[in-house]
Every structure is written in C-alpha cells, then in structure tokens.
Amino acid sequence: MKGELAMRIGAQLYTVREYTQTLRDFADTIKKIAAIGYECVQISAVSPEIPPQEIAETCKAHNLEIIITHTKPARILDETEVVIEEHKMMGAKYVGIGMIPDSYSTNKEGFRRFITDFIPAARAIKEADLQLMYHNHHIEFERFDGVLLIDYMKDKFHDVSFTLDTFWVQAGGADPALWIENLAERVDVIHLKDYAVVDGKRRMAEVMEGNLNWPAIMKAAAKAGVKYGMVEQDDCYENDPFECLRHSLHKLKEGFPEFFTEKKGDSEQ
C-alpha cells in the first residue's frame, strides 16, 4: 500500500538544459516533465533570457512546484535582494549554489574566503525565510590539516545548508547514506543520481541502474528528514534525457513506493 513520507521526488532541469534555452522550448520541456509524472522541479541552467515570471507561470500552468534553483553565485553575492524577490515570486524556498566559484581555490583557504564572502548573503536570505543551499562535487571530500572540506563548511558556514549529490559524494570516496545522516537537519534537498562503471570509466546513470546502495540512501533520507529528492543526470551519453528522467522515476516508484502518494484514479500497479 502506498503512503506519504516527507521526501518528494522532483526533476533537476539541468538534465534537460539543452531544451530550456528559449521560452518555447522551456514550455515544451515543462509540459514533458509534468507528463512524465514529476510534481516539482529545480530550476537550473535555464536561459537567463527567460524572465523568472515566465518560468513561474509556465511551471504553475503544468502544476509543477519550483522548489530550488541553481543561481549564479555572483548574483547571490551582488544582487541578493533581487534574487530573494525572484525566489519568492517563483515560490522557491531554496537558493542554490551549484559549486564553489572558479575565483576561489579549492583548498582550505579558498573555502575560508568563500564562506567569509557569502555569509552576509546567506544571512539576508535566511532573514527572508529562504535558505541558501550549497551543492557538492567530489572536491569537498579532500582533506586539509586532517579535516574534510565539507566538514569545514559544516562547522564554519552556519547559515548554509547542503544539496547533497549522491553521485559526487561517491566520486569523493565517501558514503552517500552516511553523509545524508551526517548533515541531518541541513540537507532538505538531495540530488538522486546513480554511479556506474562502463568501459573502465565512471559514468552517471539512471537511478538504480548503477552501483549505489539505494535502500540505504532512501532510508537515510527518511531518517534525516530530507524533504526533496531531485533526480538528475548531468550526462545521458547520447540517450534521450527525458527518457532518462522517466526511467529514474519509474525505478524509484517501483523500488520505493512508500515515497509516493497514491492519487485518486491512479491505476499504476
């Protein structure tokens, strides 16, 4: 029997970024995402030429809730109030940073500078009842002076929360389920992305088509109070990205039906 848990499953639009660069393509993409069965999205890599108002209206027309963005760090830093207004207009609670900007070195000193620079924006965002989110890659799992950079951020950057990416945690040599638990109460959003090995090289894969321990990940997410799991596949390797998103959602529904609310008239087996 299906039930409802705290975590909702959405689509990270970075997966279909080639189809969000004009308003017409964006509208078609949102229609397809809704038809696949997603109920919420992350706005990422959408053309800056598409106004936030158009983004909001298009998503609303297809009953897709905007949960989080990836916003250019320079805008978060220099246009904080405008970014806050845009997020409130779109109904998005979470303001996302995709990764540490290139202007900072990826060592302890670089992260110290990054934290110092972004503390005022993070506080302003929190005071507006929104939340600044930092999305990890593998670099945050390097140690300096015996301390992981992600632990350094956790301890020093109190006003930031984390969009933990399962693939990139694994790429950093760490356990995604363990890190979801480690960041409990500061990890409202996670990226659901599988890790496979093909021809001796690591590859991103549809959820449950790689080697990650999904039962442990989903159990940890429920325990840690994760609110949103955004399905993402940065590289679909010449496969249709919409079909990749469809397949991942199907596998999640099949493997973890307890995370999905049964709808009236839903005939899914």
Low-pLDDT residue intervals, each spanning 5 or more residues: 263-269
Beta strand count: 12
What is the H level of CATH, i.e. the homologous superfamily?
A: Divalent-metal-dependent TIM barrel enzymes
Proportion of residues in helical segments: 40-55%
CATH architectural name: Alpha-Beta Barrel
Strand order of the largest sheet: 3-2-1-12-9-8-5-4
Principal-axis shape: globular
The end-to-end distance, rounded to whole angstroms, is: 11 Å
Number of domains: 1
CATH fold category name:
TIM Barrel
Q: Radius of gyration, Cα only, in angstroms?
A: 18 Å
Q: Characterize the biggest β-sheet.
A: 8 strands, parallel
The CATH class designation is: Alpha Beta
Which series of helices and strands comes N to C? Answer: EHEHEHHEHEEEHEHHEEEHEH
The helix-and-strand class reads alpha/beta
**Average pLDDT metric:** 94
Query: Strand-residue fraction?
Result: 15-25%
Task: Please count the helical segments.
Answer: 10
Give the structure's gist in a few sentences.
By secondary structure, the chain is α/β, with parallel strands linked by helices.
Describe the structure.
The protein is an alpha/beta fold. It is 40% helix and 19% strand. It has one domain (8-259): Divalent-metal-dependent TIM barrel enzymes (TIM Barrel), CATH 3.20.20.150. Mean pLDDT is 94; it is low at 263-269.
How do the strands and helices of this protein lay out in sequence?
Layout: E1 8-12, H1 23-36, E2 40-43, H2 52-61, E3 65-69, H3 73-78, H4 80-90, E4 94-97, H5 108-127, E5 131-135, E6 143-144, E7 147-148, H6 149-156, E8 160-165, H7 166-171, H8 176-182, E9 189-192, E10 194-198, E11 201-205, H9 214-224, E12 228-231, H10 241-255
Parallel strand pairs: 1-2, 1-12, 2-3, 4-5, 5-8, 8-9, 9-12
Antiparallel strand pairs: 6-7, 10-11
Helix pairs in contact: 1-2, 2-4, 5-6, 8-9
